[in-house]
Specification:
Length: 400
Amino acid sequence: MTSVKSIAPISCLNYKQYKLSYFFESFSKYEFELGKKRNKANKYYNSLVMYFKKDILYIEDDLGVCPKCHSKSVFSDGYNDRLLYFYDEGAVNAKVKRYTCDNCGYNFITDLNGVVEPGCNYTRVFKEKVLEFVALFLGLVRKIAYKVKKDTGIDISHTTVENWILETENENKDIIKNYSGYYEFDIEHTKIKGEWNYRYTLFDSLHNISVADEVYPEEKKDLIKYFLDVNTRNQKKISITSDLDDKYKSIIEKLDFKHQWCLVHARKNINKTIKENIKENNIEKYEIKKIKDYKYKIFDLFESTSYKKARNDFNDLLKEFEDYPEIIRQILLKQIMPYFETYFLFLKDPKVPKTTNKIENYFQKTLPKHIKRIMKIPKGVMTRIWQRKKIWDTRNLKTT
Ligand SMILES: [Zn+2]
């Protein structure tokens, strides 16, 4: 076997100051972000140079400009030691370059603000990564801490994770600019630390994403109106589908939306009215059967395929009115007749959702009940919801 003399890649052995970002993706992200910032205002930012020498991370400022007098005449003045946690690189001992200004004598250290918050060991990318897990693990801090330990070898306390969740700005960012105008609205009651809280949600039914999602300490008319008004400003206003809570109707119509009642709730509501009536009046069996037969005739209306047909069928129902059980008469006259359009708007415009099913599904996915039980503070709840919302939005957005 002949031995082949391979030439050492000498160019690699030559001294060259590599930037860490050449090797590590998470570092190149800094450069990218810093570059963007520089374009905006700060001319000093993009000057960070990071490189490893014997397992020590050196961080220095390429430009070396005095932050006091802006003189470029500065000389290097040793290093400060700093322990930094990166997600991909783990715990890293860093040496951060110090400078002294020739002009004014000011001592300063390489500005790491883009990399890490002052007084913190966890870098910004590390925190970002952990906050991504909040969404994945539904905010279960123990699971998050376990995953971080497995990935990085770094022990992170549950309290730290919890604090990061709490200090995260809740950005309920919109991923689309123009909503369809067809909405579902609902308020979900959530008990947080023994206190009832109310989660208001507005959902774009065509795009299948939430428009707004807030937790308030109370459920009242002014707040509902404000919530709907603010979150649909400069947007198309066509319809809102809601349950039969009697607060909603006047607000929705005042804001110039057409109103559709959720037919699942409508059925439930009719069932409830009938059940209570049967109980209160001790109604006989044969009469109960009669009531139920008529009830199904009403429910059949909800399955109509055109507004005109629903109208005609309803008018037919009113014809032999005198023979009907009293409760059926009441339902027809008091519940349906005055609000006919609120039950059947979806037949006039097929884009109007006839139920609030989508929003209920969204509630479930973004804050499942077993998670809800362990929530302690509204802020923490919302951060979790919003982290989930981000995932939901990207997965479910329909653009057609
Ligand atoms: Zn200076």
